[in-house]
């Protein structure tokens, strides 16, 4: 397919396609003439991955490039791909407090989690605990339950990776699971929270929703 068709199928502009190729995120197409290039389904799949990493995952182009390079390098073992993907996810630059770090380490010891000291999840979780402490919200009583749930999710992540097939598919599954999995879990959590709220406080009854916008309501009131 020509670049115009690739752009139409993926929703990525021709200029962006050329940019991603120059930056090494997207393999070059096959030259079929002086001023023409052909692309195939692998380019469609790669562009969708690139946009998912950047648009949904919030990665910069440079960070997405590092992650994709790790996927494409057969000499990088999967646990290193995990590390590269984890380090690429945006996070708060403010160092967390020692007390919050110790809280996280306590949960790690309780669950038997072993990681390298620079695992980005440690300062990420500790930073959230610091923010919660400033709002006078204490999560210490529910942290063990959160950790138990996360253990199950982490096992499910690895099961999904193992079921992917060959090394390239497994590496891509690693990246998708880390970068996009956080967004997916946030969405599912919000759904479950509302459902459990209705069960607990409304006897399972879902309240009716007014789908009219404020603008529509104001128009009706003024007419």
UniProtKB/TrEMBL annotation:
Pfam families found in the cross-reference section: MerR_1
Keywords from the UniProt entry: DNA-binding
Gene3D superfamilies: 1.10.1660.10
Entry-linked InterPro entries: DNA-bd_dom_put_sf (IPR009061), MerR-type_HTH_dom (IPR000551), MerR_fam (IPR047057)
TM region positions: none
Keyword rRNA-binding assigned: no
Segments forming domain HTH merR-type: 1-70
Region forming the signal peptide: none
SUPFAM superfamilies the record matches: Putative DNA-binding domain
Name of the protein: MerR family transcriptional regulator
Species whose genome carries this gene: Promicromonospora aerolata
